[in-house]
Design brief:
heterodimer; A: seven-stranded mixed beta sheet; six-stranded antiparallel beta sheet; 19 helices; B: alpha/beta; seven-stranded mixed beta sheet; six-stranded mixed beta sheet; 15 helices
Chain lengths: 632, 504
């Protein structure tokens, strides 16, 4: 280890490799917590880049953004600042699944994030490719392609699709990162040499087309929704919808062309074997797997205010450029489309997340963390959430403070991380509301209530945000009390209102709370009979309404959460050799040795660990406790 | 002295064979989302640790053709080797490979005990997952006891009730459902119970559950896809169709629950009390049912002063039978205690057999009894048919759903009684191959699932939003998956991608 690697350019607490959505959050969190931090990117102009869809949020993803914001992360604020259209999805399907989704001006977003990094204290930005990392005692040594050397106490790898990136378009294969950036081709080898298990995932993106070549009259307009609801709890200014999206559909002809040319796709032509990406299927995948489906939906999304580039959601492909153009032109509105960037599939290196603990630190490599696509996930929001958690935990460790572990019942962030580190993934992991068993509790409206106190303890929630949060909580408490205590007399006016809302009239006094509980009524509808009502933050109002309406369901989920937390509190000590525990089935032994769960709760979620195995663990823990007691 | 290990106590302690000492008991409830189950951790004797060799007679201790002494543990073959002499001098038990049989003799310090066929199972390919030796001797109780004692003096210790199964369970040879079924198998003392316990093990119950699960999972996936991919063209969920699916699941589960109660009668028997005024022939009936003299039968009214208990089998039904003192007002202090007990017993019993003397006219006591017992699940026996019926049978038939005319003395009418009991307990409706829930734990899972389904349907009726409906369906799936140890969210997510073309 004495070999001179190069010129020592800096010593840091935290080094972040990659400045995408994961890297940015990680670096900002670590720096804001007071750690000297450096962030590496292959190109300064690709900081916070959106190489796929120009949008943030969506089902469950919108929840993640709210949660990131509640903890004191950046993505929500940045999205609000660069939002050009917004919709609240799933209205009418219930409060648990209301999800914000915004179209974002991607160049502006990237500029915003770069400026954020540049103006954050304790944070240095370096345009350089990290080509090697190795241990240096308790610290890490990083070497860049410029032959500069850095030393850091913690390293966070957030390499996205750059790591070993290889693009496929028909027969064409070339090494590349996303959006024409260089791939990072050398770091993988150094990780493998360390002993980290690396695998290869694939994802893809559709073509970008020139706006003026699209005939929007043949498509369906999808405007934004008013008023625009911000992601961040701290965004106070009014946001505006500035663009429309459009919807069109593939045709029978599209399908024919794709089917005819399947042999020219790298996958269906048999040149590569990709594990099917379930969440980002290419149009070829859709045509093959759902052969009886007549047509597939296409969203046309603007990439920003000052660009004519349009993103064609739903048309990801790895067919050759000529085939792409041919089938795109069979779609209404796209008959004369001009493609500016072709669709492509990209293959990249990532780690098996089962090697990580819930802090996102590698269990066998103290001080080394992973975040984002490197951990096997998919999506900007999933990446940012992990970046935030990795950044926070790297900093907390350096500061000698206990780690921040979010459990499944606390958040979608916790659910996402638990899924990754406990169950692993065989294709890029996407968050969904159905991934959470506690979704009536994990709503986007109450993300602050769930996580801001944690963010405050960690140190990312500043005084202003904290004060605003406390005021919202106070207001909520007062209003809940008022709703509980206010009894409306059975006046004619009230009963007229009730009947007009198709609910039964009352003959005695009735509490406001009980009225709100009726499915047919809501806060808005009760306004005429509720004259004492105070001015309320819409977010607070939403929380109250949901809590009252869904009280029974929420109570049940809370009981389940208590159960979970009890099991999670039974810790499995470090360094157990599960193959020594008699009675565990072989599969369970192997899985437990590999995943090394932190507690019985996590162990119970490992596939292949049966209830019988779990009971053996209980037995073993009990007898172990006894052995220790008798020794002492 | 401390926790040398744990024993799994099932919800019904009867299946375990003996009740744990409450002082030594420590209850740990282990519940994980999707994998909830109860373990009662029992403080066990030091000697009960897993590394010991255990032995027990594993066949009924009764005159029989063959009796088996089973020895299990790491040194089981060594222990067996000390009490077994192969007929062929060239062979030694210690060298026997797994799954082999050897003929020879068991012996102890006093000499040869019996001719014997010895089966060797080597870990992990045995019932318990440990080395196991089974000594099949001639079935006499004396010979078996002597063989067992020989095993003890050779180094084995007595197995606790259910310990073989516990070891099999701890060694991962059987899962929880399997373990419970095996527990039932051990205690099953009726033909039908043995059959239905086997059915669980072979998965008849699981297959039935699978059908329900499959439908629920598809419903949940439809719902989730609709919610998680609002921009994809997922067809809107029609709440009528959803409700129909739920209704079907509800019916199936309800059906399983109905059968559970009948199944329980088959497996564990039903608490039955025989009541009637003095000397109507209750004890004679009891003796008839039990097949031998159990109650003291004399013509003097009031002979039976305490409750006599007996477990008897009538066809497929096990009756845990109590013969009681005749119900009448009495001045005799001892007899009156008996009468009091009989009355409280009557109230607690799950099934009442009310006996009337058919050869005499109805008395006031008879009418009172008819009144009392007809409020419960009951059957009227009009006895002494052989002496001619003069009692007002119409009165009794009006009071009771089931009335049987018989003679306990001659046994005439016993078949009718058996048939009527079958109908009352629902056993008659059970067929041999039908899956039935076999334990309270399984029943509770189904009950919980059913509650969730009802809640989901109610939410649909009240137009509560789909997210809440979805959570209820998840709960229903989760409760059923507990029986198999899988997890709801994963199965639903997998189903979404199977069924829907979603994603950007």
């Amino acid at each position: 280890m004495n070999r001179q690697m190069g010129y020592i350019a800096g010593e840091y607490d935290v080094a972040v490799i990659g400045a995408g959505h994961a890297g940015v959050e990680a670096a900002l969190a670590a720096a804001r917590l007071g750690c000297a931090t450096v962030i590496f990117t292959i190109n300064l102009d690709s900081i916070g880049n959106m190489p796929c869809n120009p949008s943030i949020g969506g089902t469950a993803k919108g929840h993640l953004v709210r949660e990131i914001d509640a903890l004191g992360g950046e993505m929500g604020v940045a999205a609000d600042a660069n939002l050009i259209q917004c919709r609240m999805l799933n209205r009418g399907k219930g409060p648990a699944v209301h999800s914000l989704r915004a179209q974002i001006d991607r160049r502006e977003y990237s500029k915003y994030m770069k400026y954020r990094l540049e103006t954050t204290e304790n944070l240095d930005i370096q345009q350089a490719e990290v080509v090697k990392i190795e241990r240096l005692g308790e610290r890490w040594r990083l070497l860049t392609h410029l032959e500069t050397e850095y030393i850091a106490k913690a390293v966070i790898i957030a390499s996205g699709t750059y790591l070993g990136g290889k693009i496929y378009i028909g027969d064409l294969v070339y090494e590349s990162g996303p959006d024409g950036m260089f791939a990072a081709n050398r770091l993988t080898r150094s990780l493998s040499e360390l002993g980290i298990s690396i695998r290869r995932f694939k994802t893809g993106t559709p073509a970008r087309a020139l706006r003026s070549s699209i005939d929007f009259s043949k498509t369906e307009r999808q405007p934004g929704e008013e008023p625009v609801i911000p992601f961040s709890f701290e965004t106070k200014e009014k946001l505006e919808n500035r663009v429309d999206c459009h919807i069109t559909w593939t045709t029978r002809k599209t399908k024919e062309i794709i089917e005819k040319n399947l042999s020219r796709s790298p996958m269906y032509g048999g040149r590569v074997r990709w594990v099917g990406t379930r969440y980002c299927p290419s149009i070829e995948d859709k045509v093959v797997r759902f052969a009886d489906k007549e047509r597939h939906q296409v969203f046309i999304e603007p990439c920003g205010l000052h660009t004519e580039e349009m993103y064609l959601q739903g048309l990801s492909s790895s067919l050759p450029v000529d085939v792409q153009l041919e089938f795109y032109r069979t779609i209404p509105g796209l008959e004369n489309v001009k493609i500016m960037r072709p669709a492509y599939a990209i293959e990249y290196d990532c780690c098996d997340p089962l090697q990580l603990s819930a802090t996102l630190e590698f269990m066998d490599y103290p001080g080394l963390y992973g975040a984002g696509q490197f951990n096997g996930s998919s999506g900007y929001e999933e990446a940012a959430a992990q970046g935030l958690v990795a950044g926070i935990n790297a900093a907390l460790k350096i500061l000698g403070r206990p780690p921040m572990i979010l459990d499944r019942a606390s958040s979608y962030i916790g659910t996402l991380i638990d899924d990754l580190v406990t169950k692993g993934c065989s294709d890029p992991y996407r968050i969904m509301t159905s991934r959470s068993e506690y979704r009536l509790v994990l709503r986007q409206d109450n993300a602050d209530e769930r996580l801001t106190p944690i963010g405050r303890r960690v140190g990312l929630v500043d005084d202003l945000r904290w004060e605003n949060f406390r005021q919202r909580q106070e207001a909520k408490k007062r209003e809940r009390k008022r709703l509980k205590e206010t009894v409306l007399p059975p006046t004619e006016q009230l009963n007229r209102l009730l009947v007009s809302c198709e609910t039964t009239p009352v003959s005695t006094g009735v509490r406001l709370e009980d009225l709100l509980r009726r499915p047919q009524l809501d806060y808005q509808k009760l306004a005429p009979v509720d004259s004492q009502r105070p001015e309320l933050d819409p977010m607070v109002r939403e929380q109250i309404e949901v809590e009252i309406k869904y009280e029974g369901y929420i109570r049940r989920q809370r009981a389940a959460i208590d159960e979970l937390r009890r099991l999670e509190s039974r810790l499995l000590p470090d360094g157990i050799d599960y193959s020594e525990i008699k009675g565990l089935r072989k599969e369970a032994q192997e899985k437990l040795n590999r995943i090394r769960p932190a507690n019985l709760g996590q162990a119970s979620r490992i596939s292949g660990v049966s209830p019988a195995d779990l009971s053996v663990l209980v037995v073993w823990l009990g007898s172990r406790g006894r052995a220790e007691n008798s020794e002492s | 002295m401390g926790y040398a290990g744990y024993r799994i106590i099932y919800d019904n302690p009867k299946t375990e064979g003996s009740l744990p000492d409450p002082d030594k008991c420590r209850k740990a409830v282990v519940r994980g989302s999707g994998q909830r189950f109860f373990i009662t951790a029992l403080k066990m004797q030091e000697g009960e640790a897993m590394d010991r060799v255990i032995a027990a007679i594993s066949t009924a201790v009764a005159p029989a053709g063959i009796g088996v002494v089973r020895i299990s543990g790491d040194r089981a073959i060594e222990v067996a080797g000390r009490i077994f002499r192969p007929a062929s001098k060239k062979r030694a038990l210690e060298d026997a490979p797994g799954y082999t049989a050897m003929y020879g003799w068991v012996f102890d310090a006093d000499g040869d005990i019996d001719e014997c066929v010895t089966l060797v199972f080597r870990a992990p390919h045995s019932y318990t997952g440990e080395d196991v030796v089974e000594l099949s001797c001639h079935g006499g109780p004396y010979l078996l006891q002597r063989t067992l004692r020989a095993a003890f003096s050779a180094g084995a210790v007595p197995a606790q009730p259910g310990e073989f199964t516990k070891r099999a369970f701890v060694n991962g040879k059987i899962d929880l459902t399997g373990a419970e079924a095996v527990m039932d198998l051990i205690t099953a003392n009726s033909r039908l119970a043995a059959k239905s316990a086997l059915a669980v093990r072979e998965g008849a119950l699981y297959r039935k559950m699978e059908t329900v699960l499959d439908e629920l999972t598809t419903a949940a996936a439809n719902l989730s896809a609709y919610v998680d991919f609002p921009d994809d063209d997922i067809p809107e969920l029609e709440s009528g169709a959803l409700d129909k699916t739920l209704k079907k699941a509800e019916e199936t589960l309800n059906n399983l629950l109905d059968k559970f109660d009948a199944g329980k009668v088959v497996r564990e028997g039903i608490d039955t009390v025989i009541v009637g005024r003095p000397n109507v022939g209750k004890s004679t009936l009891m003796n008839l049912l039990a097949g031998h003299e159990r109650s003291i039968v004399t013509p003097v009214a009031g002979t039976t002063r305490d409750i006599v208990e007996e477990t008897v089998r009538l066809g497929d039904i096990i009756l845990r039978l109590a013969d009681t003192a005749g119900l009448r007002k009495t001045d005799d202090s001892v007899e009156s205690i008996g009468v009091g007990r009989a009355e409280s017993r009557l109230e607690r019993a799950a099934l009442v057999i009310a006996v009337f003397d058919g050869s005499e006219p109805l008395t006031e006591d008879d009418c009172e009894l008819a009144e009392k017992s007809s409020r419960q699940t009951s059957i009227a026996v009009i006895n002494k048919k052989d002496k001619g019926i003069i009692i007002n049978t119409e009165y009794i038939k009006n009071k009771f759903k089931h009335t049987v005319l018989m003679s306990a003395e001659t046994g005439e009418g016993l078949e009718e009684l058996e048939k009527a009991l079958g109908e009352i307990t629902g056993v008659a409706a059970l067929s041999d191959n039908e899956p039935i829930l076999s334990t309270e734990r399984q029943r509770l899972c189904v009950v919980r699932s059913l509650e969730c389904i009802k809640e989901a349907r109610q939410a649909i009726r009240e137009s509560i939003t789909l997210d809440a409906v979805g959570v209820c369906i998840d709960g229903a799936i989760d409760a059923l998956l507990e029986l198999t140890g899988e997890r709801a969210t994963e199965t639903v997510v997998d189903r979404i991608f199977e069924r829907f073309c979603v994603g950007k």
